[in-house]
Recover the amino acids of this structure.
């Protein structure tokens, strides 16, 4: 895990981020309505999880918002936003256990999603961004924690699409926040100015130690689309495969990001 970030996180529009989480949760809920028992039993790219367990996991990650807000406020901030991607790996075992528990205990997934949507909507309606919440990996600001929910929602919507062949939409604001946070995490993991990473239309960051570029065309450039970037950053695909498929354009002797990926397990 990289050392704690001293870089200040970019600002996110709270109203848009909250609306994005709800919109993406709504898209997933609509998709769950259509799933047959055969589809729920399909495998996913997440180890031995089935689609049912993936759907239960989305309940888990979205449900943390009302669940944490119902708990007493912790005394101090522990995890800044840019440290969150690197703090998640230590809790994968516990997350897997909790996901399976929800999947086994919830035969009525659609009813669960309807209740979840109402609970998340109510929780986000009035809570202050600066309110601290006791997240699994450490205390976070609510405003920052909601940004992390866009990552969870977009990444797992993509997992759901990959497993079922559905075309669940990606809310634009949620996609933007997810791509930006993961791009900023790359710059946190490999600080510097030798490589410019472009994820149009949402993010541009400079990273990797070496000569900093200031004018003209950068000598080391990586460019890709948001979903390919998110898949790379979360280990859903590999660098060499996406470069070979022309989904990633990489120019310059330092423009190989393979040793830095994935960022989030």
């Amino acid at each position: 895990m990289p050392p704690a970030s001293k870089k200040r996180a970019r600002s996110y529009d709270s109203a848009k981020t909250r609306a994005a989480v709800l919109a993406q949760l709504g898209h997933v809920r609509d998709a769950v309505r259509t799933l047959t028992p055969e589809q729920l039993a399909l495998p996913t790219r997440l180890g031995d999880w089935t689609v049912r367990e993936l759907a239960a996991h989305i309940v888990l990650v979205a449900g943390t918002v009302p669940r944490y807000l119902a708990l007493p406020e912790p005394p101090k901030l522990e995890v800044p936003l840019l440290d969150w991607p690197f703090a998640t790996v230590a809790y994968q075992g516990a997350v897997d256990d909790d996901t399976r528990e929800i999947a086994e205990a919830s035969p009525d997934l659609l009813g669960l999603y309807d209740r979840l949507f109402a609970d998340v909507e109510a929780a986000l309606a009035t809570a202050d961004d600066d309110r601290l919440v006791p997240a699994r990996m450490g205390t976070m600001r609510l405003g920052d924690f909601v940004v992390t929910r866009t990552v969870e929602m977009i990444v797992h919507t993509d997992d759901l699409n990959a497993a079922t062949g559905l075309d669940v939409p990606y809310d634009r604001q949620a996609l933007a926040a997810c791509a930006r946070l993961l791009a900023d995490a790359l710059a946190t993991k490999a600080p510097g100015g030798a490589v410019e990473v472009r994820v149009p239309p949402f993010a541009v960051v400079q990273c990797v130690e070496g000569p900093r570029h200031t004018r003209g065309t950068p000598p080391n450039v990586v460019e890709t689309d948001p979903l390919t970037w998110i898949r790379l950053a979360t280990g859903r695909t590999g660098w060499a495969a996406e470069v070979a498929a022309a989904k990633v354009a990489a120019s310059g002797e330092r423009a190989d990001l393979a040793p830095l990926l994935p960022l989030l397990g």
User: Anything to note?
Assistant: Residues 142-164 form the longest helix (23 residues).
